[in-house]
Hints:
Number of helices: 8
Radius of gyration: 19 Å
CATH superfamily: Ribonuclease H-like superfamily/Ribonuclease H
CATH topology: Nucleotidyltransferase, domain 5
Largest sheet: 6 strands, mixed
Number of strands: 8
Helix content: 40-55%
Order of helices and strands: EEEEEHEHHEEHHHHH
Distance between the termini: 41 Å
Strand content: 15-25%
Amino acid sequence: MARRPATTLHPEPSSSGDGPADARRILVAGVDEAGRGPLAGPLAVAAVILDPARPIPGLNDSKKLSEAKREALYPLIVERALAYCIVLVERDEIDRLNIFQATMSGMRRAVAGLVPAAHEALVDGNRLPADLPCRGRAIVGGDALEPAIGAASILAKVSRDRLMVLLDAVHPGYGFAVHKGYPTPAHLASLQRLGPCPQHRRSFAPVRRLLAQRTLF
């Protein structure tokens, strides 16, 4: 888990409207994931609290950005964010919980890992994790609407892609560095030829079917 401490807070106007502008303070985190669909590798989840005094131009849904643009934005987010936390949910936990519950668990841990703690979490999608350590709001398409969610999507995507390149060297022949574990025709062909490696998600249908066939024969 990667995270960065920070101490600066966002001012929030008094809810009563008659107090000083800094009477209460709030930190808002954006939360997103990368890697729900692949057949192999971990799920990456990130939570980010941006600093309004240090804006980062170009934040967007990571899927709408080129790899070069994501890589250029990654160090800016790490440098300028008030706080961030990146969590990797490993293959065995995904298989044990299922991908949805693993995503919810990773989001909860990412928000809990922020220092200082967030007062509100904006989560990409239509579901909120149970037991968030703060209030939360689910936003469909939030990674393109909320800069903090876009920043989280970039940290998650870049972190996971980099790891899949490393895993390609550990498990050669599958092409992880190219397709990042997604079920491309080339990946499915190599999976059929080589069989699953320890990074393949046993609970995902193509891997599960292949294992069942090999058990039968």
